[in-house]
Structures are given as structure tokens and as C-alpha cells.
Amino acid sequence: MLHINQQVLRTDLAGMPLEWIDYRAAARLYVLGQVAYACGDTLLRLRGGISSLTRQRSLLEIHSIIATQGTHHALNKRRDDYVPPLSNRTLFQRDDHICLYCGGSFSARNLSRDHVRPISQGGTDCWTNVVTACVRCNNFKAGRTPEAAGMELLAVPFKPTHAEYIFLMGRNVLADQMAFLHAHFPRTSPLLKRRARN
Questions:
Q1: Burial of 173 by CB count in 10 Å (0-12 exposed, 13-18 middle, 19+ buried)?
Q2: Range list of H helices, 111-161
Q3: Which residues, including other chains, have CB under 8 Å from residue 159's CB and lie 6 or more apart?
Q4: Distance (Å, whole) CA 80 – CA 1
Q5: Which of 18, 128, 134, 182 registers the highest number of CB atoms within 10 A of its CB?
């Protein structure tokens, strides 16, 4: 069994990843009968009271991945033009907390969002024009393009798909959750090389 802060991956009936939820939200979905099926490992076993009719103690097993019934807006997120929200947290996750100029690995407080083509030169604040940069490299590059600053990008910035974005939003993604999400990644996804954190 794992720690109660471990996240549960919620999907729609077709298995499209939707979001991360905590065990309380998952338990509520189970109790309301909205969990169509569960897969992955059992994360928690919640024991309740003893029934006066059956003299049995209630038991609810929370799995790492649950598919829920009902209508969701997942179809819109499958479209090719879907753009997930951009934040520093997910950007740093996309680039694995590595400065894409010097190649160093840093904590979030020592990283910044760099616009490859600076906004002052017509660049936009979008996934394909931003990279993770350490504060030192970002200050050195300043308002220049990498070429003008004599710097080379170590990887091409990319816009994550919805499934990749769900992965980037996760904390302590388990091996079974990782395998499930990998099945939804494009074959060329740079995120396929990431390992689960058990």
C-alpha cells in the first residue's frame, strides 16, 4: 500500500486520461457508482463501519487508475489543435528540469521560462517558443535569439498532447500509471524515455 497523498489517474470510459484526483475524490466516485472499471494496482484499502444487517465491515479498494462514467470534455482534448495551458511547472516538467542551453539539472527555483524568439522580436508565449533555462543562461541570452547570443538549444520545444500534459501534471507517477499514459503518447514523444517514480 502507498501513501494517502498518492494521486489516482481518472479516465473516461474509453480510457482517455482526464485528470489526477486524490483518494477522497476517488472514494466518492466509487461510492456514487460512477467508476465503470478500475485497473492498475490497489493504492489503498479503506475500511468503514460494520453493517448491522450483515455484520460485515465495509471495504473499499482504491485503484491507481479508474475509468468513470458520464460525459466529459475529453473529445475536445483529442483534437490536433488542442493546446494545454502553459505554466512554468509543466514547462519545467516537460524539459525534465534541465536548462536547454547549458544542460544542467536544476530545482524549480533556479529555473526560468525563456522565449526562444523573444517577445520583443515578435515571439509568442506558447509551448513551441518556450524552453526551460537556468537563471544564468536566461540572463546571458537576454532579449536575443539563441543564434544572436551564440547559444545552442539542446532540444526542440514541443506542444504536449493532452495525455502528455496529464503526465506533466502528475506527481510521483507510478509504473502502472506511466505505462497507461505511455500508450496514449505519440510514438515520437520525448517523454517516452521518462521513468516512473516508485
A1: buried
A2: 135-141, 146-149
A3: 83, 84, 126, 127, 128
A4: 38
A5: 134
- Cell 544542460 belongs to which residue? 103
CB 48 within 8 A of CB 59: yes
Closest CA to 167 of 153, 154, 182, 157: 182
Q: Which residue has the cell 509543466?
A: 90
- Backbone φ, ψ for residue 75 (5° rounding): -60, -40
Q: How far apart are CA 144 and CA 132, in angstroms?
A: 16
AA letter at 91: L
| pLDDT tens for the 198 residues of the chain, in order | 456 789 999 999 989 999 999 999 999 999 999 999 999 899 888 888 787 788 888 889 999 999 998 755 555 555 567 799 999 999 999 999 999 999 999 999 999 999 999 999 999 999 999 999 999 999 999 999 999 999 999 999 999 999 999 999 998 899 999 999 999 999 999 998 775 554
Nearest residue to 19 via CA among 163, 155, 161, 160: 163
